[in-house]
Amino acid sequence: MVRRETWLGRALLAGVAAAIAAFGAGAAGNAGPAAPAALVPAPAAFQAPVASPAPTTSPAPATSPAPAAANDIPREWLTPAEAAGFEATPDYEETMAFLRRLAGRLPEMRLETFGRSAAGRPLPLVVVSRERAFTAAAARRLAKPIVLIQNGIHPGEIDGKDACLMILRDLALGRRRGLLDDATLLIVPIYNVDGHERISPYNRPNQDGPRRGMGFRTTAAGLDLNRDYVKVVSPEAQALVGLIAAWRPHLFVDNHVTDGVDHDWVLTWSWAEAPQLPAPVDAWMRARLPAALAATERAGHSTGPYVDLKDPVDPAKGFSSWVGEPRFSSGYFPLRNRPAVLVETLSYKPYAQRVLATRDFLLALLAEVGRDPTGLTGAVAAAEAATVAAGAPHAPPSDVAVNFEESTAADRIRLPLYAAETATSQVTGRPLLRYRRGEIRPIEVPWYHGSRATLTLPRPRGYLVMPGWPQIEQRLRVQGLRVEQLAEAAEIEVETMRLGPPHLAGAPYQGLIHTTADVTRRTERRRLPAGTLWVPADQPDFALAVQLLEPEAGDSLLSWGLLSTVWERKEYISPWVLEDQAAQLLQNPQLAADWQRALADPKLAGDPQARYLWWFQHTPYWDETVGLMPCFRLLAAPSFQTRPWAR
Ligand SMILES: [Zn+2]
Questions:
Q1: Is the pLDDT of residue 41 over 80?
Q2: Average pLDDT value over all residues in the chain
Q3: What percent of the chain is predicted at pLDDT more than 90?
Q4: Phi-psi region of 414 (alpha: psi -120 to 50; beta: other; left: phi over 0)
Q5: What is the reported pLDDT for 260?
Q6: CA angle, residues 212, 85, 349, in degrees to nearest 5
Q7: 633 found inside a domain
Q8: pLDDT for the residue numbered 11
């Protein structure tokens, strides 16, 4: 799941009793508080069919038998999960062994690795290509869509792996051959391989299987890889982003399992829409995703948008599907002009049901890609071309979006919620919501899924980055950005970014201390040394450079606390040396007047340290780079000579 980390805080802060009362009204069997005439219809692309049209009682899914998924498959070709009756999911070695058998039988499949985990396990990659285009260069030459399906970023949520093993097995048995016609498939069967091997039946308290156990959410070092797409701290994320930069897949699918509220949808989905996603790609998604969802429904699985309740104890307040922060896969791919589909099956459904829903959705989505392959590649190409054109040296002025948040605009949607009743919790002593599984009580609720920019800035022609910051250089390299270097030292008019005092988060997050500051931008002429990095704006992935380097961006290197030395004063001036400096400087009547004005502030006048700093800052010994971002925005067309980046 992708739930924002504020969830627990929201849950605890919610006005529980009032909320329960409000929910009770909504759950009483009517369509919710708003009259149908007042409803804003969801856009056609978002009409999410509800499996059961009226309040009914359906068989409780938790107790339904596992579907007979594989009765026409020869026993020796059952996937490990099928062979175990979906009570178990194969561990790393068993998964690899099965994949090797499949690769031995399917000449269009190659089993590769794309890096190593922190604990040293090879990261597996399956490439499926009818043309046997098993390298990034060969696949890109085909001009077919490249679709990347990622499983096990949260290894406890492993439905996607077992779904993909079924699809690959079918291909190996000569079935579903049409899948090979119109796309090159990249499948990461298990991304967080180290977490995947920390198997326990107690890793996912809210999840109905696989009963014999599943992997653990984070890496061995405690990192959540679905927070690591931009900052790429982990070796796993560095490897995956390298894979993405090399193959440049046109469509990405990230398979998860979610919990929280209990409802009738088995498979929920989301994606970061326009304006986060470039318009041509957004249009392709709106044209194709509904058909894929409809096909999934026809295959017997109820689907709906990803549900992150606004108030965990009051579903009537509606839910959010917005998943646009760039640290998530779903927010990251739009920075690269590509759509990412987040799949979240519902953890309360039995494992077999979840795996089959995931499989059927993947098949349906691939079928939609096959119906319009050039539509997808063309949309991505158009989005890339627009980014490059907007960043050209003499392009008309435009803006870049630095931060987005969930839009306050909501559609209304029918949520096939399960009936619920309240009891007093023995644990908390407060009201507790309990669902009666299978008994659907649909309610009309607000559905938030759009985004809006909260900070935009004039698009620079590029960034100049001071040499000697490996934290920055590593990310520019791993993300595959085009970078050059100043051939010679040059005096250049740039926009500097000076930071106010840092505000440090009170606790670590992903092992780092999130940090924010006010930013003052101004035009300065600065002499930049030879070797200064140049990150031009006329490249398709430039939004990633914006995200890394603009200090206010939520996933910037500064925000993640990776550039915090900028605030530290590194040198000291002895008081008596400063005293002599001050005596000399006071000869300047202008400075003497400035000092008198400063002294008029009693706070400064009474603070020896503030007075010391005031004078230190007025001597030539003061380090003017304290609080200065080590990168600069170039606002005019570049006029300097560059050379290739010597990495
Ligand atoms: Zn997840």
A1: no
A2: 90
A3: 86
A4: beta
A5: 85
A6: 70
A7: yes
A8: 34
Instruction: Report how far residue 135's alpha carbon sits from residue 129's, in angstroms, rounded to the nearest whole number.
Output: 10
Q: What residue numbers bound the domain in which 526 lies?
A: 453-569+626-644
Distance in Å, CA 126 to ligand 1 centroid: 21
Cα 437 from chain centre: 31
Q: Cα(343) to centroid of ligand 1, in Å? A: 9
217 CA to centre of ligand 1 in angstroms: 8
Q: Do 210 and 196 belong together in one domain? A: yes
Tokens of 145: 């869509």
Place of tokens 């079928």: 367
User: At 381, phi and psi to the nearest 5?
Assistant: -65, -40
For residue 521, what are the β-bridge partners? 497
Residue 235 Cα to ligand 1 middle (Å): 19
Q: What is the mean pLDDT of residues 608-614?
A: 95
Q: Residue 220: which region, alpha, beta or left (left: phi > 0; alpha: psi -120 to 50)?
A: alpha
Cβ 480 vs Cβ 242: under 8 Å: yes
pLDDT band at 16 (very low <50, low <70, confident <90, very high): very low
Residues 364 and 258 occupy one common structural domain: yes
How remote is the CA of residue 351 from the centroid of ligand 1, in Å? Answer: 15
Judged against a pLDDT cut of 90, whether residue 242 lies above it is answered with yes
**Domain tally for the chain?**
3
Residue 57 pairs in a beta bridge with 439
Q: Report CA(368)–ligand 1 centroid distance (Å).
A: 25
Q: Which amino acid is at 424?
A: T
Coil, helix or strand at residue 274: coil
Shared-domain flag, residues 197 and 128: yes
| CA of 259 relative to ligand 1 center, distance in Å | 10
Q: What is the DSSP letter of 563?
A: S
Q: 220 and 149, same structural domain?
A: yes
Q: Which helix (H) or strand (E) holds 414?
A: strand 411-415
| Å from CA of 224 to ligand 1 middle | 9
What is d(CA 162, CA 180) in angstroms, rounded to the nearest whole number? Answer: 20
**What does each C-alpha distance from 249 to 178, 186, 377, 381 come to in angstroms?**
19, 8, 9, 12
Distance from residue 615's CA to the centre of ligand 1 (Å): 53
Q: Are residues 340 and 313 in the same domain?
A: yes
